[in-house]
Amino acid sequence: xxxxxxxxxSTFYRILNLVDIITVPSQIFADKIIAKGVNKTKVKVVHxxxxxxxxxxxxxxxxxKKYKYLNKKIIFYYGAMWEKKGTxxxxxxxxxxxxxxSDATYIFAPRNLPFAEKYEEELKQYHQKVIIIKENxxxxxxxxxxxxVVLPYPELTGTEGNPSCLLETMACKTPVxxxxxxxxxxxxxxxxxxxxxxxxxxxxxxxxxxxxxYPKEMIQKAYERAQEFSVEKVTxx
Length: 237
Description:
The structure is a single chain. The chain has 12 helices and 8 strands. The model has no long low-confidence stretch (mean pLDDT 94). The radius of gyration is 18 Å and the shape is globular. It is α/β, with parallel strands linked by helices. Helix 2 (60-66) crosses helix 7 (139-145) and helix 8 (164-171) crosses helix 11 (216-226).
């Protein structure tokens, strides 16, 4: 499903030749393990799935009213919060974005609270402009409520090859920004906004551009592409 966080995890790929079939979530992943000595006839690309019945477009303004974010521009991030997920890069965009959009609010919904807690002290200075949600929430509604989801992955170590957060956002018809990693481009093509990994300046400009005018045709194409990752279609794969 993902590249190992441990160096040893990518050292002994040849041992996979002892099994009958190896499934990986992208062709790029397949090419990498084949180059490491895995028999290519055993490698099959089977994408990771999302729940396209749960992650659907919803009325953004009604959700903002429900969660008390009316008249706010919501920039949302969810998933694990740590450097290898791009959290540090996203935090660096906060000052210039808030300077232009005083009504902007960054919301983080971390899956790993112990890691996320290290950012709390740094983010206190922004008061209610930056929120870390610690309780369980309806993620599908928050994704649909957001004006923009930003997933600035610098790499995919420990991240699923088809990141569910990216696909779920596309399925909700929510504007999304991610990075130009080859595995991500294999998934989304040119159907979402892309920035170079670790390029804070470009990421900031992309966020500002997206809040101002995210192309509607891009949102529709991303939505249609996300439907290819439904449970039903992946089961057929």
